[in-house]
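HUMAN:
Could you generate one sequence with tokenized structure?
ASSISTANT:
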Amino acid sequence: MRLIPLTTCLALALPGLSLAQELADTIYTGGPILTINDEQPNAEAVAVKDGKILAVGDLSTLSALQGQETRIFDLDGRTMLPGFVDSHGHAVMGGIQALSANLLAPPDGEGSDIASIQRILTEWFNENKGVVEKVNLIIGFGYDESQLAEQRPPTRYELDEVSSDYPIILVHQSGHFGVANSKALEMSGIKAGSTPPPGGVIRFDEKGEPTGVLEENAFFTTLIPLLSGVGTDGLRAFAEAGTALWSSYGYTTAQEGRSSSSVVNALHEIAAAGELPIDVVAYPDVLVERDFIGEHASKDYVDGVRVGGAKLTIDGSPQGFTALRDRPYYDPVGDYPPGYAGYAAVTMDQTTEAVRWAYENGIQILTHANGEGASDMLLAAIESAQAEFGAIDTRPVLIHGQFLREDQVDSIQQMGVFPSLFPMHTFYWGDWHREHTVGPVNAENISPTGWVVQRGMMFGSHHDAPVALPDSMRILSATVTRRTRSGDILGPHQRVDVMTALKALTIWPAWQHFEEDSKGSIETGKLADFVLLSHDPTAIDTALLADIDVLLTIKEDSIIFEADNSVKKGNLSLNPLFSHPHTSHHILNSMYSAFVDS
């Protein structure tokens, strides 16, 4: 009888394995492996060579790939999945969050009323005077009047109580508006009678004086000059802090979802120095950086950075009542006229022209549209562009779509638009949407993942950090359970199963970025990008999904994050060797020094 060589047996057992296959650098085994590959959903072992997956299968078969130099990586009961792919976020802006006073409401911070906001800012200022003196700015991130006891933002005068010598700027959790103290208003030239820029609002009190609250473009045109003091070194510090934060939640690919040429250049500098732990796909603003986008857009990374396409922003924040609806807000909190339905940050002509440019040049465009009215504008522009250029494969992306109507979901499917949805809103602002933005009936259908799945569509689940922490397990929980802060279930018919929700964190956003052949699942030939979790999300009570810890993040076979063993995240019983810090605070000390020492 003729003996069949072992390499031939391997090739037969593992399709795609070369007969002249080299031995593995690493073999991962010893815990559940969820591949997110429908053809082979689970595996006992994964072999890796030169940062790519060599083979996936049972341990006895893959043991033939073990040589004297092969490392056996014992999962020790931890669950391995492909590294998470960011469907939408702002990795550099996330660094600003990591380097600012944390004003978030519980459970992510202590910003529960205006007095606590003042206390947090004062403590941060006292602890970081060197930073403040260098950049001439006190910055706080994450206040949200929907979660403050007063249900209103702080005023300029309340911020003046913290400091009248230094400019103070507070960034709302949505990132779409903020509050400036009197010094910051003075430096920005904002006073009684000031005219807001197009697509922005300056709020005034009954005496005609600015309250300090700035919306949309009025806020952006104030924030950006105030941040100029951080300089190139500060920008690099933001990027380093942001990507480190992303990796701590299991992301091996991040997105910089409203970028600029200066941010892209800073990312390239960091990457060239070998200091970028994960891949970053940047989407500069199509209304500002069109020439830069046209010159640099590519599907190929350079040292882990690439310009993926263009970003367009049509409207604002749904919880802040600046998203453009197709009907009045249900019960908005604040001084709004009857029938108020929000507003667009851009005109219909600008939207149509930007989308047309993207189609004409074969460039992917990601568009922020929260309200129904904004989504109507986007869909009309895409329909016009497709009528002119055909349905070319640029994979246009709708970002957020909080208040999508079901007929709009039908249009998205027909036009081949990829929906990157925001189910975390059900946790953070679901109760607010039910009570104030859209009312109890329409709140059931915010972030309509159920409608999308019913139509057999792919979608991405995102965090939009720094709007929320890039907490992958909070995303997973919200997508599966739709549980609000109060404990209610908002729209049970829009829930999806755990495996679908995991695909929306992995293989589907990889497809969104034209990277499905190299990322998003554990398959032969793909990058060895992995995340190790404390528990198998498919094997526990879904009520506990948010308490799963990210223990290890691996980029191309190298560990880039290992959880601090001093803190437990939630209610699950963990291996005492592993737990997740679950905040950005561990990044701060090293990042602050980037300002002080630069």
Remarks:
- The mean pLDDT is 89.
- The longest strand covers residues 26-34.
- The two ends are 73 Å apart (CA to CA).
- Residues 372-389 form the longest helix (18 residues).
